[in-house]
Amino acid sequence: MKKPLYLLVLGNIKGAKDPAEVQNTVQMVQTRAQHQQEERPYRKLKVPDRILDVSRDEFLWLQTDDTTLKSVNKTAHDGQVK
């Protein structure tokens, strides 16, 4: 060959498999930090005590009535994505 495409060209090799027949296997590794994080329980969310005294329906009503959440409610209602 005067101008080969590759530096090393292999011919037919006994026992070699067709690439279409080879099954790819996937392996996964978990680091020590990932394992430690998985073992830890979730921390509870810190919620003010006064919220715990409110029923679900009352909480929903308070959210819809809150003027600071008007833009968020409008965006959610219109289905806009930011």
Describe the structure.
The chain is built from four helices and no strands. It is mainly α and 82 residues long. It has a domain at 45-77. The longest helix is centred in the C-terminal third of the chain and has 10 residues, at 56-65. The two termini are 59 Å apart. The model has no long low-confidence stretch (mean pLDDT 84).
Task: State the main characteristics.
82 residues; mainly alpha; 4 helices
Write the topology of this structure.
Layout: H1 32-39, H2 49-52, H3 56-65, H4 70-78
Work out the number of β strands: 0
Order of helices and strands: HHHH
Beta-strand level of the residues, as a percent range? under 5%
Global geometry:
elongated
Q: Report how far apart the termini are.
A: 59 Å
Helix count equals: 4
Radius of gyration from the alpha-carbon trace, in angstroms: 31 Å
Report the mean per-residue pLDDT as an integer.
84
**Largest sheet: number of strands, sense, barrel closure:** none
Structural class: mainly alpha
Poorly predicted tracts of residues: none
Helix content: 25-40%
Short description:
The protein is an all-alpha fold.
